[in-house]
Amino acid sequence: DIVMTQSPLSLSVTLGQPASISCRSSQSLLHSNGYYYLDWYLQKPGQSPQLLIYLGSNRASGIPDRFSGSGSGTDFTLKISRVEAEDVGVYYCMQALQTPITFGQGTRLEIK
Amino acid sequence: EVQLVESGGGLVQPGGSLRLSCAASGFTFTTYWMSWVRQAPGKGLEWVANIKEDGSEKYYVDSVKGRFTISRDNAKNSLHLQMNSLRAEDTAVYYCARWRGSNIDYWGQGILVTVSS
Q1: CA nearest A62 in B: which residue?
Q2: Cis ω before A18 (30° cut-off from 0)
Q3: Which of A74, A111, B24, B85 is buried most, with the most CB atoms less than 10 Å from its CB?
Q4: What is the DSSP string of A36-56?
Q5: Cα separation, B36 vs B88, whole angstroms
Q6: Rounded Cα–Cα distance for residues A84 and A3 (Å)
C-alpha cells in the first residue's frame, strides 16, 4: 500500500499570510500517462470534502487562484498564497495511482 | 446539478448487517466510476471501495474484504454498499463519491453508521 504522510498536522496562520502543506508518498505517484496521481481536498467544518487540486497541480473548477499545487515523484506541496477565513478546515492529500486509494492524515488549518 | 444522496445508515449491533444506498442525479451515472469513502468520528478519510461504470470491476480496502459488497443499479442511478459482519471499527460517516478520471469530484453529504451494542 502507498503510505501518504502530511506535515504539519496543524497550522495556525494569520489572515492574509501564506500557508504551505507538504505531502509525501512512500512511492512515486507518476502514472504511465505522465501525470502525477495526487489530489488535494479540503473538508470545511461540518461539510463533506471538496476537491481543490487534481493531478498534482490542476485547480478544480471554482477554486480560487490563491491555491496552488506542485511537486513530483514522492514530494508534493499545497500552497495558499494569502489565507482567508473561509480556508479553515482540514486538508487531505490523496493518491489515486493504485488501490487501495490512500489519504494523508490531514492537516488542520486555523486562523491565528 | 450533481447530487449524491446517501440513505440507509443507523445503529446496528456488532455482527449485524446494513445496506447503504446512494441516489445519484444530475449526471450520466453510467459513465462514472463510483466510490464509498468513510470517516470515523474525529478521524481522517478512508477509502472503502470502488466500482467501475458497468459494475464489472470492484476494489476494496483490505479491512472490509469479504464483509462488504459494493454494487450499482444503472437503471435506477443508484449505488449500494452491503455491509455484513459489522464491527465497532466500522462506525463512521460513509460518503458516496463520484470519480472523474483520477480524482473524486463530487461527494454526498454522508450517512452515519454506528456499530454498538
Answers
A1: B105
A2: no
A3: B24
A4: B-EEEEEE-TTS--EEEEETT
A5: 18
A6: 30
C-alpha cell belonging to residue B8: 440507509
Instruction: Indicate which of A48, A50, A58, A59 best probes the interface with B, i.e. most B CBs within 10 Å of its own CB.
Output: A48
pLDDT band at B101 (very low <50, low <70, confident <90, very high): confident
- What ranges in B31-72 are assigned the alpha helix state H? none
pLDDT band at A93 (very low <50, low <70, confident <90, very high): very high
Q: Do B47 and A100 touch (CB under 8 A)?
A: yes
B25 within 8 A of B3, measured Cβ to Cβ = yes
Which residue is closest to A52 within chain B, CA to CA?
A: B105
pLDDT over threshold 90, residue A41: yes
Whole-number Å distance between alpha carbons of B109 and B100: 18
Helix (H, G, I), strand (E, B) or coil at B89: helix
A 10 A CB-CB count for B71 gives 14
